[in-house]
Each structure stands twice: as structure tokens, then as C-alpha cells.
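Posting this for the archive.
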Amino acid sequence: MGEDVPLRDVLRILGRHWRTLLTCVLLVISATLLVSLSTTPVYAASTRVFLSSTASGYVVSKDDLGTYVELLGSPTLLDPLRQGLGLPADAPINITATVSERAPILSITARASSAKLATDIANAVAPQLAVIGGKYSGLIASTGGTVEATPVVPASTPVAPESPDVPRNVALGLLAGLALGIGFVLLRHFLDTRIRSEADLAALSPKPLLGSLRRIKNADRGALVMMTDPHGTAAEEFRRLRTNVQFVDVTTGGKHSFVVSSAIPGDGKTTTAVNLAIAMADSGAKVLLVDADLRNPSVARAMGLEGEVGLTTILLGRATVHDVAQRWGDTSMFRASGRAIPPNPSELLGSDAFADLIKQLLAAFDFVVVDSAPVLPVIDPVLISRLVGGMLLVVSAGRSKKHDVAAALKSLKTVDVEIAGFALNLTAGEGTYYGYGRRDAKDTDAVTNDQPARRSPKRARKLAA
């Protein structure tokens, strides 16, 4: 939070977490109501009394009034007051008074747990004060005079308690709940280490979001949503990704090719590459999907097919592109995938043979999609990106960590590689067609839950036939 956060971003964050904000407000208001309703009510009744003396030529002074105020909390006044009201000897009585600045008038306020008791106490204080008042004034006592208390404004029965003030407490609870909710949402957002939205990506890089792939049900259909559910939400999102990639491709200098990678394994880059290639082929282009993740080849698994020969076989001179590239069903998409893992993947991808191969592929196909290893663990995607038109970086919402993506971007920038844009995977939606669940160490980047991949080869071969 070293930089100022625009207000619109704060509002966007609060809007995205409005349920959390509302929960905080409701909890605080509920707690406020519970405390207010369980608190014993306190009623206040007030009266104004004029005090005078029967002593000839003597007027009750301000000092006398101050003395009477001090007497309000003394047993001299309270004991006979309890007896007169029929209260227990230990019953608490709360009485306060203020002195008028211009006349010998006391404003007396009594507080009690019931409205009637407060009124009775307030009205009984003045007569009792008149009984004992003369004893505490030397001039009045020396002349044998007494004090008379005349009610100016008798105490009336209050209709509502002075406390708790439920409407005021609810209003304060609302403000406190909003403050707590806003603070909690913003604190959780800025302390959250995971990528969750386009705004998080925008804070890391100015590169555009080319596709948002939300969670969708039916994980048992495997990774090939472009084939198994071509009219579903997932397929439509891949078509949108395809369109945006084609727009970006205009600026790549004629290299109609992209490498698909991620910061770390497990973000769904292989699934994204497979479905993007099928979506490209749906538009009528002749597309080749190349599995260049030589450390963990996953395209064949993701498509539910066998893949004994592939890119490694071509680079070793044991086969040609035409021998390895296989058409996918009746589409115009071809795949070059295999499961052979060479001992020197980086050397192969950085070789002249691989550079020549990419040139051949770009000449033979309208568009080439290359699935590569993740950026952070190895240098492979950097080597590939120098030969193709651009890089699509796949990020998983709620899974990819900000520092991993930032480190990947920094690593690419160090070698003068700029990504074309992001594909934000697993955004908010219903279910997921990736079926993330139990993982297999060798199958991390294919269908993340390996169960659908084990059930799907027969079905996938049927589609490809």
C-alpha cells in the first residue's frame, strides 16, 4: 500500500465483497440491539424547586443552595427519603441537582429503574430538603426559622427511558459496523497474497486481460470443453479469448503464433492452450498445437490420447512434422504432442534446429499455439517466446499468488520479454470444468483432477476418429 489507492478501486473492492460488509454491519447491529435490550432501563424525572426562608429578612443564599446540593447524597436526606417512599434501607437512590444563577432555585433530577419511582423520588426530595435545610444554615437556625420548598415545575412521569437509547445505539451500531466492515474488507484485500480479479492483475502489469475463464460445472467432461460442450459458457469464453488473441496478433509482425505459459505449475495453462487451439480451428484457421513442455508434456493427457512421438522426436531427426502432427477429429486443428522427456530440454529449445522448426511451422500453418513449461522454474518459455509472436500468461484466480506472478513478470522483463496479455482462469462462477481436486505429481498441468483424464481416452479417440 505504498501508493494511493483511487476511490473507484476502493469502491470496486467494497462492491465485490458486499456480502462481507453486510455481514459485519448486521453482526454489530445485532450485538448492539442485544446489549440495549438486555440493559436495565433508566428513567429520569426532573423538578424545579424555589427555596425560601421563614426567618425575618433572610433570603436563602447561593452558599445555602450549594450546601443543599451536597446534602442530596448524604444519609441525612436519603434515609428519611427511603422511609417516606417505603423503599428498603439499602435501595440505591440517584439524585443530582444544579443551582440557578439568578434565583434560589434548584433543578433536581432523580433516576430510577421505573418511571413512577423516578417521579416519586423527584417530587419527594424538595419537602425532605426543606425539613433538614434549616439545620445547615447558621443564620436560619439562629433565628429559629425554617426552609420552605415550593415546586416551580413538578416532576412528570417520563414516557421513555433515558437509557438505553435504542434508536441512537442502532445508528451508532450501523456506523461502527460500516467502519468495521470496510476496514476488514480493505485489510483482507491488501493483505491477500492471491490474485483474485482483473484489478489485481492491473496492479502488477499494464498488459491487458485477454480472457476470463470462469468456474463451470461438469468437471467429469474433462478438459475439452470446446468439444464436449461447444455451446456452453466455457466454450464461449474460449472463443472470446481467441478473438482477443487474434486482435493482439495483428501487432506481432506476422508471426501468427503464441506460447501459453504460467508463473508456476497448476494454473491450467495446458487446458487453456488445448481449448484455445480448438477455438482457433473453429474459426476456419489451420492450427497446430505444439506440446513444448518437454519436462512435463501434458497435451496428450489433456486430450485423452496416446503420445509416444512428438516435438522431441522431430528435434532428434527421427521424424518429420508431417509424421508427428495429427489432425484432431474433423477439425482443422493438428497437434504435435508426445510424452518423451529429454535429458536437456533447455538445450533443445535453444537450438538452431528448434528455431528452424518454428519457421517451418509458421509457414505450414495459419496459427501455432505452443504449450510451454512455467516461467519461474525454468528458462524454456523465454527461449520459445523469442521465436513466436507473443506470450499468453495464464493466472488462476484465488490460486496464483501475487508475488509469483510479479516474479515471473520481472524474470521476463529482465531478458526483454513482454507478455501479450493474461488469461484469468477459475474466476467466479458455478463449479469448474477443470475439476481441481486430487492431484498427480506428473499430471499437474493437464486436467488438474486426473480422474476425468483416466476416463476420457476412449471418448477422446472417438471424437478424433
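DSSP finds 20 helices and twelve strands in the chain. The radius of gyration is 41 Å.
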